Amino acid sequence: MNANRPLIAVLTGAGISTDSGIPDYRGPNGLWQRDPSAQELVTIGPYRADPEVRRRAWQLRARTGALAAEPNPGHLALVELERSGLPVRVLTQNVDGLHQRAGLPARKVLELHGTAHQVQCLRCRVRSAMAAALERVAAGEPDPACPDCGGVLKPCTVMFGETLDPAVLGQAEAIAKACDLFVAVGSTLQVHPVAALPGIALEHGARLIVMNAEPTPYDPAADELIREPISTALPELVRRLIAGE
Ligand code: ZN
Questions:
Q1: Cα 154 vs. chain centroid, distance in angstroms?
Q2: Which range (6-10, 23-27, 107-111) has the least confidence?
Q3: Most exposed: 21, 69, 157, 194, by fewest CB within 10 Å?
Q4: Are residues 49 and 96 in the same domain?
Q5: Do 192 and 230 fall into the same domain?
Q6: CA distance 122 to 225
Q7: Which residues contact 82 (CB under 8 A, 6 or more apart)?
Q8: Which one-letter DSSP state was computed for residue 160?
Q9: Separation of 132 CA from ligand 1 center, angstroms?
Q10: Ligand 1 centroid vs 223 CA: distance in angstroms?
């Protein structure tokens, strides 16, 4: 890496999107803690096997309206960072697409857990828009099937019981190895294999900044810990990075 233009890797988790109204399902007050039966809605075995689980999952997706969420100052700060000319790559655990919607080029964003904006047929693997599937739910189909083959439609998100796309994970590991600064934003850094990425960055000599309201396993190893709300703290951090402070 050119010392004057250090590669910055930014890992984002649920915490960056809560100010956009997207709940942290995995967090201490998340849906999956309050209602353990909700977890089977995002677990591949029950989802694949049980039409009733899929019906409840579609109802939940229709209710949450996550596709309509707007980016917040945290997302916009990362766009500003990218537009400053500093080499930056965003690795996100979020499936909400808000980094791209805020204006980050898609090639700068790795969606580690997939995207909620598309669905995929479990039989023929064809992808289509989530919005179109939700329109069918609104029109009265409890469990819309693949228009091509009648197979089960599933969001293009990584469910419990599924593994991350090895190509995407491999790219993330390469970025962690190559970066000079690794910034973890709004992630508890407890869900593997993504949780290993800051460790890979540290092993390869990167500095680590952890920005999260709750403690993370990497706090003792971090060069800087930021507990303030992301919507104010991330714009401030970006200002410092652009200024070279
Ligand atoms: Zn199909």
A1: 17
A2: 23-27
A3: 21
A4: no
A5: yes
A6: 42
A7: 88, 104, 105, 108
A8: B
A9: 15
A10: 48
Task: State yes or no: is 75 an active-site residue.
Answer: no
Task: Retrieve residue 80's tokens.
Answer: 């500003």
Q: How far is ligand 1, taken at its centre, from the CA of residue 115, in Å?
A: 18
Sign of CA dihedral 113, 114, 115, 121: negative
List 12's β-bridge partners, or say none. 92, 185
pLDDT single digits (tens) 47-88: 999 999 999 999 989 887 767 899 999 999 999 999 999 999
Locate the DSSP E strands across the chain.
Answer: 8-12, 88-92, 109-111, 114-121, 127-129, 153-157, 181-185, 207-211, 224-226
The CA 60 to ligand 1 mean position distance, Å, reads 22
Asked if residue 88 and residue 129 are part of one domain, the reply reads: no
Of the candidate ranges 18-27, 171-180, 183-192, the one whose mean pLDDT is the lowest: 18-27
> Which structural domain, as residue segments, surrounds residue 48?
25-64+115-157
Element of type H or E holding 162: none
Q: Do 217 and 132 fall into the same domain?
A: no
**Confidence bin at 30 (pLDDT 50/70/90):** low
The CATH number of the domain holding residue 214 is 3.40.50.1220
Task: Write down which residue in 157, 178, 209 finishes a domain.
Answer: 157
Kindly tell me if the per-residue pLDDT of 241 is higher than 80: yes
User: Whole-angstrom Cα distance, residue 140 to residue 58?
Assistant: 11
pLDDT tier, 114 (very low <50, low <70, confident <90, very high otherwise): very high
pLDDT in tens, 212-229: 999 999 999 999 999 999
Find the catalytic residue in 75, 99, 113, 117. 113
Question: Residue 1 has what pLDDT?
Answer: 42
